[in-house]
Amino acid sequence: QVQLVEAGGGLVQAGGSLRLSCAASGRTFSSQTMGWFRQAPGKERELVAAHTWTGITYYADSVKGRFTSSRDHAKNTVYLRMNSLKPEDTAVYYCAADETAPRRCFSQPVLNECEYWGQGTQVTVSS
Questions:
Q1: Which of 88, 46, 44, 45 lies closest to 66, judged by CA?
Q2: How far apart are CA 116 and CA 47, in angstroms?
Q3: Residue 59 phi/psi, 5° resolution?
Q4: pLDDT in tens, 32-44
Q5: Are 35 and 106 a contacting pair, CB within 8 Å?
Q6: Which residue pairs, CB below 8 angstroms and at least 24 apart, start in 67-73?
Q7: What is the reported pLDDT for 12?
Q8: Could you tell me the strand order of the sheet in which 67-72 lies?
Q9: Which of 48, 61, 31 lies closest to 92, judged by CA?
Q10: Residue 114 in contact with residue 36, Cβ under 8 Å?
Q11: Residue 17 contacts by C-beta under 8 Å, 6 or more apart in sequence?
Q12: Residue 51: per-residue pLDDT
């Protein structure tokens, strides 16, 4: 079994930055795609970023140029650096990982078919 544990959420003013981390434990993660989703109150979950084990990254249009994903294979951890945060970035951010069907996991619209999910971390951006 695999566990994903997010950290790094919090309250920040508009224009500020946060870095989320997602640490995986349980077994080797180097061949899995890992990424981030977010869900704001009253809204559908949306894909934010995905990062393949070979280093290919995907970003939603709403975060391109502001968010950056990175991975540390030695630590089985994926990071999401969020700069120039806006109030509309306020949401619970979820880490996810998938090895067998990453295209169905990291899809938009979201199918909620990822193999593994983290518990979520709250990001609140004040105006």
A1: 88
A2: 15
A3: -135, 140
A4: 899 999 999 999 9
A5: yes
A6: 69/35, 69/36, 71/34, 73/29, 73/30
A7: 98
A8: 3-7, 18-25, 77-82, 67-72
A9: 48
A10: no
A11: 81, 82, 83, 84, 85
A12: 93
Beta-carbon contacts of residue 9 (< 8 Å; ≥ 6 apart): 18, 20, 93, 121, 122, 123
**How many Å apart are CA 84 and CA 17, to the nearest integer?**
6
Which residue has 């500020």 as its token pair? 16
Give the contacts of 123 (CB within 8 A, at least 6 positions apart).
Answer: 9, 10, 12, 18, 20, 38, 82, 85, 89, 90, 91, 92, 93
Q: Tokens 């306020």 identify what position?
A: 90
Segments of the chain scoring below 50 in pLDDT: none
Q: 87 and 74 in contact (C-beta within 8 Å)?
A: no
